[in-house]
Design goal:
There is one protein chain. By secondary structure, the chain is α/β, with parallel strands linked by helices. The chain has one domain: Rossmann fold (3-Layer(aba) Sandwich), CATH 3.40.50. It is 48% helix and 14% strand. The chain has a seven-stranded parallel β-sheet, sandwiched between helices. The protein is globular and about 55 Å long.
Length: 264
């Protein structure tokens, strides 16, 4: 019988997801990791060099059928899932009416929101039955305010933040903890994929993904309800999101997220 615990990480081919997987591997966890692209295989090879067993499953979690297949494979070896890190996410940038297309907006909802709920519903009940487990949702500092020119993305992260905290309270005293990870701008492919390289936030300073992941895993294993990871500016923004009115927060965010602001 394998004495190591098992961590499941989604969106693990690069960025925060890859660094989460690597962090768990360094702490002796075996892994089941997934992403929609072929780079998940290379990510698995890197993690295996740390002396743990890694199963890489290529799946598009926006597709409910593929998500069900992934969930079944993640549990298919008969080993309990000790840690579930629901990290996969995507963004889209631009004016909601004139710039973005419906398919891209709905892809954000499908991956960031629907797949997170679906995967939690698939894997968390077994944790509750055993009376042991830890769950991490990658939310964002974006959850603290509405986001003009990122309207759907910010709304999706606000959902995740609320969902994580509500689920945490439901599971209190049942042996399963839930932690929300709230990073700020992080050095990943996110900004390029979301079409944000010409925005002030996209061109601005970013935190190392490895440091964000380390803080996330520390908080998860400590059973904390959330962690604002990265630099002090993220913690300031989190406080501002609690005390300032939405109309002011959105006006401030517009100056950083509107296309073309990188040159202003």
């Amino acid at each position: 019988m394998n004495p190591r615990q098992l961590a499941v990480v989604t969106g693990a081919s690069s960025g925060i997801g890859y660094e989460l997987a690597r962090e768990f591997a360094e702490r002796g966890y075996d892994l089941v990791i997934t992403a929609e692209n072929a780079a998940i295989t290379e990510a698995a090879q890197h993690c295996e060099r740390l002396g743990v067993e890694v199963t890489a499953i290529r799946a598009d979690l926006r597709d409910p059928t593929e998500l069900e297949r992934f969930a079944a494979q993640a549990q298919g070896g008969g080993r309990p899932v000790d840690v579930l890190a629901i990290n996969a996410g995507v963004g889209v940038s631009g004016d909601f009416v004139t710039d973005t297309v419906l398919a891209d907006d709905l892809a954000v909802v499908d991956l960031n929101v629907r797949s997170a709920v679906h995967l939690a519903k698939s894997l968390v009940p077994a944790m509750v039955t055993r009376g042991r487990g830890r769950v991490l949702f990658t939310s964002s500092i974006a959850a603290t305010s509405p986001g003009p020119f990122q309207t759907v993305y910010h709304a999706s992260k606000a959902f995740l933040q609320s969902f994580a905290q509500g689920l945490r309270e439901e599971l209190r005293d049942r042996g399963v903890s839930v932690t929300a990870l709230m990073p700020g701008p992080t050095e990943t492919r996110f900004f390029k994929r979301a079409g944000m390289t010409d925005t002030k936030i996209g061109a601005g300073p970013k935190d190392p993904a490895a440091e964000v992941a380390r803080q996330a895993v520390d908080a998860l294993l400590a059973g904390k309800d959330h962690v604002v990871a990265g630099s002090i500016r993220n913690k300031v923004q989190a406080v501002a999101g609690r005390v300032l009115p939405d109309r002011l927060l959105t006006a401030v965010h517009r100056k950083a997220s509107e296309p073309g602001t990188a040159k202003r």
